[in-house]
From TrEMBL:
It comes from Paenibacillus gallinarum. The lineage of its organism: Bacteria, Bacillati, Bacillota, Bacilli, Bacillales. InterPro entries: Pyridox_Oxase_FMN-dep, Pyridox_Oxase_N, Split_barrel_FMN-bd. NCBIfam families: PPOX_FMN_DR2398. It comes from the Bacteria. Residues 37-126 form the Pyridoxamine 5'-phosphate oxidase N-terminal domain. It holds the Pfam family PNPOx_N. SUPFAM superfamilies: FMN-binding split barrel. This is Pyridoxamine 5'-phosphate oxidase family protein.
Length: 196
């Protein structure tokens, strides 16, 4: 059956993978830095959205969006950045994961720009009121902030955003074609035996 074809010819080794995707050029490997320089600082000052990747102790993954006014992610020094925790659905998936496993990955976006900034590092959660107040974040926080010790930063090529036509409104679905997220939410609750 067509649905079983993905199980055949599985790629399960680095050698098999590299037969399809050649080794990157040295400039691609060495574009990664472990400090927040002026270029990265400027990018963060203009970024209003990033996606935070975390994993728990069992390596179960989660990715969630974080947004704010441009520059809401603060550069503390060359090795540390910080962002506020905001009120949400109270699941706190990312924060619970950070407690179990501090490794995080972040993909930052500037609206209209196809290149994204990737930052990987180790995170801690702080509830220090003086620190949180000193950052002068707009709006309220949960009384928590996340500080990330930067281990790796690099600009990611624009191909995904170009291929996905992310910033081209002509390619967007019409409003009446979009998924009804309220219906989706209710249907998923129903699958779990909960009726609203």
């Amino acid at each position: 059956m067509i649905n079983d074809l993905w199980m055949k010819d599985r790629v399960s080794s680095k050698e098999q993978l590299r037969m399809k995707i050649e080794e990157p050029r040295e400039a691609i490997i060495r574009k990664s830095v472990d400090v927040v320089d002026e270029h990265i600082k400027k990018y963060l000052q203009l970024s209003s959205l990033f996606f935070l990747g975390t994993a728990n102790a069992k390596t179960q993954m989660d990715v969630s969006p974080r947004g704010g006014k441009p520059g809401f992610v603060k550069v503390l020094d060359q090795k540390h950045i910080a962002f506020p925790d905001r009120s949400g659905n109270k699941r706190a998936d990312s924060l619970l994961n950070i407690i179990e496993n501090p490794q995080v990955g972040m993909v930052f976006i500037i609206p209209g720009l196809n290149e994204v900034l990737r930052i990987n590092g180790k995170a801690i959660i702080t509830q220090n009121e003086d620190f949180i107040q000193s950052q002068e974040w707009d709006g309220t926080t949960t009384g928590l902030a996340v500080v990330v010790e930067v281990e790796e930063c690099f600009i990611h090529c624009p191909k995904a955003f170009i291929q996905g036509e992310v910033w081209s409104s002509e390619s967007w679905a019409k409003k009446d074609e979009l998924p009804n997220t309220t219906d989706m939410y209710k249907a998923h609750l129903l699958l779990n035996g909960i009726t609203l």
